[in-house]
Design brief:
By secondary structure, the protein is an alpha/beta fold. The chain contains 13 helices and 14 strands. This is Branched-chain amino acid ABC transporter substrate-binding protein.
């Protein structure tokens, strides 16, 4: 080969290499942006877009831009399964963030090993990561941690007899199983175990039954709109036993739906919605306030715990890709599993081969709704 031919070959190789290096890192996302869980999925969608824009404006990851390919499952299981299949097979993404809900997540986790792509769910069911699936992680703290934190608080009130009212979907079923285990385990008596449907518009029958059993406290486990119905019915019946909620209602949407009946309700929730009330020097405070300010300026809306889950997922993916030095899905998976000390909106993540959530009950604060806002219970 003569000199000019060699130079031409080198230029072709250099051009191809530069083009390859400039290819974006394709990240998939599947959220319930519409449908019954849209109050969860919409802030997740917004937060992921905001995170990707911030990363790209700062030079991307490994010098490459991030490309988000996002689908709306409309809070439907079948659409979620099909969307994840499309992300994996057609779009050839390197990792997937979502789904939004526990039920939709549980419908797809078994497929991730076949796809060979890591998934970071934004849902909270313990079953998502127990037992550990090598390809599946989640950023929402587990239901059992929220329940432990809430039961710790209820202990301080002197209550002994607890009734539960749970929704009959994936989130409610997971919470119900954890409540059934932890209530007696932590020294309480479970006096009523009632269930309502996700589309029910009245729960007075279940609450009337609970009132007849003289419960000291009632724990409702669900996501909107059901818990708002429970709160209104609880107020209408004039029940004396205090009503507690799960972290599944930690958004302003619950207050909007429940109206005055939300006042005084106590629940476990992440620190994002009470960031300004944290003590100075708290390891999450600066990041939480920065995220809250950025979200409010861009979307003209209050932050929610759920939007923070998508932000955390992108933050963790960025850290994993940088640690791996590659966007190879297996390398990302391995790096995710070894991440520790990552400060997110939900807590400080410490993943391991045995723990694909990386959080514990310290991720939660006990919060009371007062005057249409969130207040940490000191």
């Amino acid at each position: 080969m003569n000199r000019s031919g060699l130079v031409l070959l080198l230029l072709i190789v250099f051009s191809a290499t530069a083009s390859l290096a400039a290819d974006p890192i394709r990240i998939g996302a599947i959220f319930s942006s519409t449908g019954p869980a849209s109050f969860l999925g919409e802030p997740e969608k917004n937060s992921l877009e905001m995170a990707a824009h911030s990363i790209n404006a700062s030079g991307g990851i490994l010098g490459r831009q991030v490309e988000i390919i996002q689908y709306d499952d409309e809070t439907e299981v079948n659409k979620c399964v099909l969307a994840v299949e499309k992300l994996a097979r057609k779009d050839e993404v390197k990792a997937i963030i979502g789904p939004t809900t526990s039920g939709n997540t549980l419908a797809v986790v078994r497929n991730m090993a076949r796809y060979g792509i890591p998934l970071i769910s934004c849902a909270s069911s313990d079953k998502i990561v127990q037992p550990v699936n090598p390809w599946v992680f989640k950023v929402a703290p587990s239901d059992s941690f929220a329940i432990e934190r809430l039961l710790d608080y209820i202990h301080t009130t002197g209550a002994k007899r607890i009734a539960i009212l749970t929704v009959s979907d994936g989130y409610g079923q997971s919470g119900r199983a954890a409540l059934q285990t932890l209530i007696p385990q932590m020294g309480y008596e479970l006096v009523a175990d009632e269930v309502y449907g996700p589309k029910d518009t009245d729960t007075t029958a279940q609450l009337t039954k609970i009132r007849g059993l003289s419960a000291d406290a009632i724990i409702c486990w669900g996501t909107n709109p059901g818990p708002a119905v429970v709160a209104r019915n609880h107020r209408q019946l004039g029940m004396e036993a205090p009503l507690y909620m799960s972290h599944g209602v930690a958004s302003k949407k619950f207050m909007e739906l429940a109206g005055d009946a939300a006042e005084g309700i106590i629940l476990p929730a992440g620190r994002l919605i009470v960031a300004g009330q944290l003590e100075d020097g708290h390891p999450q405070k600066a990041m939480l306030i920065s995220y809250e300010k950025q979200y409010g300026e861009q979307y003209k809306a209050a932050v929610s715990t759920f939007g923070g889950h998508a932000w955390d997922a992108m933050l963790l993916l960025k850290a994993a890709i940088e640690k791996a030095g590659s966007d190879d899905p297996k390398a990302i998976r391995d790096a995710l599993e070894s991440l520790t000390g990552v400060v997110g909106t939900a807590g400080i993540f410490n993943f391991s081969a045995q723990d694909h959530n990386g959080l514990d009950k310290s991720a939660f604060e006990i919060i009371r709704i007062e005057g249409g806002d969130w207040k940490i219970v000191r």
